[in-house]
Every structure is written in structure tokens, then in C-alpha cells.
Amino acid sequence: xxxxxxxxxxxxxxxxxxxxxxxxxxxxxxxxxxxxxxxxxxxxxxxxxxxxxxxxxxxxxxxxxxxxxxxxxxxxxxxxxxxxxxxxxxxxxxxxxxxxxxxxxxxxxxxxxxxxxxxxxxxxxxxxxxxxxxxxxxxxxxxxxxxxxxxxxxxxxxxxxxxxxxxxxxxxxxxxxxxxxxxxxxxxxxxxxxxxxxxxxxxxxxxxxxxxxxxxxxxxxxxxxxxxxxxxxxxxxxxxxxxxxxxxxxxxxxxxxxxxxxxxxxxxxxxxxxxxxxxxxxxxxxxxxxxxxxxxxxxxxxxxxxxxxxxxxxxxxxxxxxxx
Length: 324
Hints:
two-stranded antiparallel sheet, 11 helices, globular, disordered C terminus, UPF0014_fam, membrane, transmembrane helix, transmembrane
């Protein structure tokens, strides 16, 4: 009834959310059902390799959701940077929190480790998406096509004028770089604003928890029959873990984004911003190509340092042909 009521309101107000609501409801049912079957097997087997694999799958799916389903703008190399930032922050906080805050021995106990990782990833995803989106919005270039009338002919004939619009912060960054500022100094105001906006939901959630809102983990434990104070203790630990993982993920992802858009020669590179959602296979192809070029460079450096690279024209040409 609640779902139908929301759909009816969307139809009545013309919000055009019916399709999105239906897809979201269908995904919720299917994904939770699959998760339930998978977790039953993981909890029964209780093997550390399977638990870590499950956590890695969750991290990969979270990265995919940010870039290929949520992001309106992306930049070159965004998938790898988001994957590393999210994985490092959530795994570090998850392992330390499970072992020392929750006193789990071993730390990978699936009944608590996997649900904790899920909560950390859900909040970290939201924060990283807001932070990266803020940076890309502040440094964007908009090309607006506008009709204008030609002065020498009738006003009914129009021509297209392309106007280049930039954000105020982008102009400030370019001015700072032109006056000799480093990319850290030029991008610091944007970084501060992006991190503040990204961390604001987590801070607000921590402010009202227990006073106005009763969080889901605490509610579930109380309904399941756990002592109330134990539920309170675990909820406090989870909230601090969420704050730590979100902070680490947001800071690292925003910094990498700025370092990508402002190169090491102190040049602003807005052309690296891509409008719209990227294609997964295209990014995989680019990643494999970059990996192959990196392997070739390592091979060249290895042969050069060990003295296997002959300086003769014949051998040099043969190696160049094989490695090209």
C-alpha cells in the first residue's frame, strides 16, 4: 500500500518517478533475496577467504554503483581511484573496528564483519559521491548553444552562438595557478568545500541519533531480543566506524580527483571531465591498455639496468619491435 501510495502521488503531481520507483522496488526485492541466500552459505562455511572475498565483492559493487549508476560526471581513471579509496578506507576501519572495538576474535567472524562492512560501504558511497560530484561541478566547463539574430538581415533569421560558461571557482583556480600557486594551494578551497558537503550527512546523523532517530542496527538487535545496552554499545561503535571510513574515503577520493584535474605542471585540465555515464567495457579496455604499457616500461627498465639491452642497432631494433 505504501509503495502504491507513493506511485499515485507521483502520477498526481507529474513527478515522473513511477519508473524509478518500480525499478528501485524490484532491485530491493531481488538484491535482498540474493543477499539472504548468499549470507546463509557464508555464515555456515565460516572460512576467512570466503569472508574477505565477499567484502571485496561488496566494495566492487559499491564502486560500480557510484560511477555507472549515480554519477552524472566522471573523470579519467575514476573507477580505479574510487575502488582503491573505498576499499582501503572501509577495509582498514572494518578490520580494526571488528578486532579492537568489538573484540571479535577472529576479526573476520562473518556474522558481524560482513554486516558491518555493508553499513560502512553504504555511508562511504554516499559521501564519496557527494565529494567527487562537488569537485567536478566546481571545475566544469559548460558550452551553451544560444540563438542570436544577425544584425544585417531580418530578425526572423537566427544563428547559433556558442558561449563558454565556467564556474567562479574554476576561474579562481586558473588565476591562482597563473600567479604561481601550487596545485595544492589552488585546489584547497574546492577540496574544503567538497569534504564539508560530503561529511555533513554523517555529522547530522550522529547529532540526532538516540535523541530523535533510532538507527536500524540498534532497532534490529532490540527486536531480536538482545539487551538494550549491548545494542546501544554496538550502535555507538558502528557510528564511529562509519564516520572514520567515510572521512578517509571522502578525503582520499577528493584529493585524487583534484590531482587528476590539476596536473603536476600546475595546469587545469577540465577536458578530463566526462559528461554522462561512462561505459564499463571502455574503462576496462583503457585499464588493460595502461597495464600493458606499464609492463612494457618495467621490462625495458629491467633490461636496461641489468645490462641485457644491447646497444647495437640490430638488437635494439629487435627489442623495440617485440615490446612495441
